[in-house]
């Protein structure tokens, strides 16, 4: 009988036996280097692939370190006597390497938790600390007697315990229960009611004319702010100061704490004085503080205990390098010595990078006093800090969209962005037609911006414009080729959709829209108006998102690409008409952007839309099926979105869909057509600007969803590039819109008055 056996070649086995420990420990160090540099960009990444790679490195870092500890422990118990003398595993050095893995398990300062749920597992990490420390101690005793490296091993062991302990403490303090407990104020029993009433009863029993009067009690929490509100624009350091001040107050939002009217009034007074751009800058930094407190070691490092422990850990590692070089350099030879130096220098380099990260963090800038007048000896440092903060402010780049209406889009480079600066976009008609992804604006390229600046300085603007046109033509041809190659991927895509439909759909049909300054100014002004009238967006809960999404799309494609700006063409010299036309185009884009964004949240981020989602998944599925059936009957092909909208509007809707179909199907396709026609009629007959109506409706919908989304869901998105709805949420809180403010303003002081 034929017998099949699969065995690993002897050469590969020998290679593995020689290099498994060395390779594992170097791989663990390499992962630490990757994480300390790459982990911070996840809060500003636009592509999910980048975040997924960081997640993979985060998981592999712990696994690689644990695996290497196990290999070292096994090698100490079963030494390889037949190994090549040139690469023999020195048991003394192996025992010396083991504590370095505790340093690696402590992780870099830039990431302690990948997701908010990781903080809840702090107890698991504490147990891991005990077990791994026990494994290293076991390895250490297995290598005895070892008088040369004994003291060095102990030094690295304590440094590793400190680093691992820092990470565990950071996770513990960022767990939601402990995070809430750290912000709770001292219990307040209020005025002594029983004592007062006893005195009152005694006076009355003595037949003394006694009355109780109430006097307001001074607000004990009122204190002078380090940076009082000012008029006019904020400089870079003032933005950080105010953001840190509001972070200390409003971080309680994450754990559903309530705030006093004093805190609300201070915040609202500050933000009503600000421009839209300054408000955006403050909120960006404030969200970065939230990110640092929940996902990094900043809360631990910025304490006296943290500073002392960090100094000791770095001192132990530095002393170990010096002692190893001067006392044991003649004891060991070969590649193991090089690996040892790599581990020592790598640990020191990681600590130095972590120190620089701390120095240039927003938390350090928030501690600077008198930022406008630094001490003369500190002027160079203050100058460097100001330059660094200037690089991190929003960079706006002029961009012309398809209707030739200029906008300013966020163009901050990845290394300096505080969030992704993009808005995800999903469209029902595009999805049902399987059309290619499109966006209103293009993301500006940093390379193109720099090249344009250089060409402008050289007086070669025409050459740059020609080169840009050539690149666009090449890009169009590449796009055509990409679409044709898409046919070859169809079988594979269909196979993947059987297992991960939402992931594949998001990859194929979700586009990204750059964040524009005009959109933010419109959002800021609308919420500011609501705060003046204390208007909460409760009416939005009666509005169907899918209905308004389709109606917005129908109206958007029904207009010409110039936004029906005929007045501008006929009266080119009339500046008022031109301004009105440009404003109309902007409102049209705002409506389209927010409409597609809300559908993206509804379909792919349902946890953020729990308050308005309802039966959205069923309604979305029914509407998609009806749309696909309708498009197939009209022989519509991919990328014919405009024609599809025209066909939907051409259907006679004198009798409502509910009267014909009943309520078995939850589709709103032709109900949206009725709404779109009504909006067009209002504009035509009642002189109502339908785009102003729709843009305000979408701000209302996003506001309602933002205020009714769970706060920890907003906090979770901060580590994944951020969401526009989170900016709504925090800006609404600062304007005093929401249910997180208490009515009572404090205690009143009761006083007994005894008449004569």
Automatic annotation (TrEMBL):
Enumerate the UniProt keywords alphabetically: Membrane, Transmembrane, Transmembrane helix
Please list every transmembrane segment annotated in the UniProt record, as residue ranges. Answer: 21-41, 53-72, 93-116, 122-141, 148-165, 301-326, 338-360
InterPro entries assigned? DUF4220, DUF594
Give start and end of each DUF4220 domain. 55-431
**Region annotation Disordered: where it falls in the sequence:** 562-582
Under Pfam families, the record lists: DUF4220 (PF13968), DUF594 (PF04578)
Q: Which residues form a coiled coil?
A: none
Question: Under which name does UniProt file this protein?
Answer: Leucine-rich repeat family protein
């Amino acid at each position: 009988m034929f017998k099949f056996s699969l065995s690993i070649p002897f050469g590969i086995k020998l290679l593995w036996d020689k290099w498994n420990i060395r390779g594992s420990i170097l791989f663990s160090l390499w992962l630490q280097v990757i994480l300390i540099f790459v982990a911070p960009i996840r809060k500003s990444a636009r592509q999910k692939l980048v975040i997924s790679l960081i997640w993979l490195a985060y998981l592999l870092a712990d696994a690689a370190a644990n695996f290497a500890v196990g290999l070292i422990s096994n090698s100490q118990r079963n030494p390889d006597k037949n190994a090549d003398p040139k690469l023999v595993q020195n048991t003394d050095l192996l025992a010396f390497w083991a504590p370095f893995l505790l340093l690696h398990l402590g992780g870099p300062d830039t990431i302690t938790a990948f997701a908010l749920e990781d903080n809840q597992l702090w107890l698991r990490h504490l147990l891991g600390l005990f077990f791994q420390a026990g494994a290293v101690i076991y390895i250490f005793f297995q290598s005895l007697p070892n008088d040369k490296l004994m003291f060095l091993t102990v030094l690295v062991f304590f440094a590793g315990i400190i680093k691992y302990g820092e990470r565990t403490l950071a996770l513990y303090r960022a767990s939601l229960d402990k995070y809430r407990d750290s912000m709770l104020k001292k219990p307040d029993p209020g005025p002594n009611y029983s004592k007062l009433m006893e005195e009152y009863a005694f006076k009355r029993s003595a037949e003394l004319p006694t009355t109780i009067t109430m006097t307001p009690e001074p607000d004990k929490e009122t204190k002078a702010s380090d940076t009082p509100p000012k008029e006019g624009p904020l400089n870079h350091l003032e933005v950080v100061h105010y953001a840190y001040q509001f972070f200390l107050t409003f971080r309680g939002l994450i754990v559903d704490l309530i705030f006093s009217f004093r805190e609300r009034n201070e915040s609202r007074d500050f933000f009503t004085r600000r421009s839209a751009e300054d408000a955006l800058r403050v909120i960006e930094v404030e969200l970065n503080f939230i990110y640092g407190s929940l996902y990094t070691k900043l809360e631990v490092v910025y304490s006296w205990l943290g500073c002392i422990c960090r100094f000791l850990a770095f001192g132990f590692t530095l002393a170990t390098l010096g002692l190893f070089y001067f006392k044991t350099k003649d004891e060991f030879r070969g590649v193991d010595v090089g690996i040892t130096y790599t581990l020592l220098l790598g640990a020191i380099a990681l600590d130095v990078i972590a120190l620089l990260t701390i120095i240039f963090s927003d938390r350090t800038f928030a501690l600077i006093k008198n930022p406008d007048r630094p001490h003369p000896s500190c002027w160079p440092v203050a100058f460097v800090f100001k330059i660094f903060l200037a690089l991190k402010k929003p960079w706006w780049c002029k961009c012309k969209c398809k209707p030739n209406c200029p906008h300013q889009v966020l163009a901050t480079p990845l290394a300096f962005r505080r969030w992704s600066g993009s808005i995800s976009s999903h469209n029902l008609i595009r999805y049902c037609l399987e059309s290619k992804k499109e966006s209103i604006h293009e993301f500006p390229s940093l390379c193109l911006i720099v090249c344009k600046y250089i060409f402008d300085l050289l007086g070669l603007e025409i050459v740059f414009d020609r080169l840009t046109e050539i690149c666009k033509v090449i890009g169009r041809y590449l796009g055509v080729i990409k679409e044709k190659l898409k046919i070859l991927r169809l079988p594979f895509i269909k196979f993947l959709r059987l297992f991960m439909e939402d992931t594949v759909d998001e990859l194929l049909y979700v586009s990204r829209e750059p964040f524009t300054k005009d959109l933010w100014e419109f959002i800021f002004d609308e919420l500011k108006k609501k705060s003046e009238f204390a208007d909460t967006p409760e009416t939005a809960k009666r509005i169907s998102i899918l209905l308004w999404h389709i109606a917005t799309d129908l109206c958007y494609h029904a207009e010409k690409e110039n936004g029906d700006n005929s007045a501008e063409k006929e009266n080119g010299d009339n500046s008022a008409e031109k301004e009105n036309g440009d404003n109309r185009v902007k409102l049209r884009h705002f409506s389209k952007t927010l409409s597609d964004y809300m559908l993206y949240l509804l379909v792919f981020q349902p946890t953020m839309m729990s308050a308005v989602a309802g039966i959205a998944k069923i309604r979305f599925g029914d509407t998609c099926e009806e749309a696909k059936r309708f498009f197939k009957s009209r022989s519509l092909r991919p990328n014919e979105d405009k024609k599809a909208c025209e066909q939907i509007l051409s259907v006679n809707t004198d009798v409502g869909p509910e009267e014909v179909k009943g309520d078995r199907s939850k589709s709103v396709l032709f109900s949206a057509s009725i709404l779109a026609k009504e909006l067009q009629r209002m504009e035509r007959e009642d002189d109502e600007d339908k785009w102003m109506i729709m843009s305000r409706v979408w701000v209302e919908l996003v506001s309602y969803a933002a205020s009714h989304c769970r706060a920890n869901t907003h906090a979770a998105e901060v580590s994944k590039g951020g969401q526009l709805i989170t900016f709504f949420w925090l800006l609404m809180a600062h304007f005093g819109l929401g249910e997180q403010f208490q009515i009572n303003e404090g205690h009143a002081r009761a006083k007994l008055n005894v008449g004569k």
